[in-house]
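Worked example 3. Consider a protein that binds farnesyl diphosphate.
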Amino acid sequence: MAELPRHIAVIMDGNGRWAEERGLSRTEGHRAGSETIERLLDHLLRLKIPYVSLYAFSTENWRRPKSEVRAIFGLLDEFVESRLQKLVKKGVRVVISGDISKLPAKTRGQVLNATRLTAKNRRLVANFCLNYGARAEIVRAAMLACTQSRGKITERQFRRFLWQPSLPDIDLLVRTAGEQRLSNFMLWQAAYAELYFTQKNWPELGPRDIDAAIAEFRRRRRKFGGL
Ligand code: FPP
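Given these inputs, the predicted complex is written out as structure tokens:
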């Protein structure tokens, strides 16, 4: 039987559409979306999948109305406040990719606290991408590589300068809500990812949908450029 993916990455799209379809506010859509994150983490723990990356806030999301940006960070604060103890107990390790110096001070403190309190956990690494853009990550890595290494640099050495060097490559990249693009998400890490798109909006994604994505992944034959 084909192997399970080790690293799943998710572009969580469609919170707004889910809310609009129900006559709810966009914030309610993001709130429902944060509940989907909890369900996903629980399911990955059951499946023993050790790495997940979540596109929670992109460098482009600052273009949204201030009120929506504030609401998203408020929900992130709530998420950490209400679930951190559970994450600690369940063995989830929170790590962050992205420049969090630009986040509201409270949110920055919350996420740093979450990374510290879960640092010893080993069952599932949950990489929250916050104020994250893949091009910015690659440019930052190139700058660090220039200043910190002399002469030639290999792909392996370059990787050390990414936000989370110890994350393995992405095996399966899932995007919800019908759009079929990468939107500046983990371009380095997704070089050989299998892409899976579903019409469902993020808030309505459940364990069975994750199973379907994994089943499709296991049917694909990965060649990594070989035969
Ligand atoms: C995409 O939906 C979603 C986002 C831009 C933000 C993702 C945020 C969350 C899941 C909630 C925040 C909470 C935590 C814990 C990170 P969209 O608004 O682009 O949907 P649309 O395309 O239908 O408008």
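Take a moment to read the result before moving on. Residues 194 and 217 are 7 Å apart (CA to CA). Residues 7-133+171-219 form a domain with the Undecaprenyl pyrophosphate synthetase fold (CATH 3.40.1180.10).
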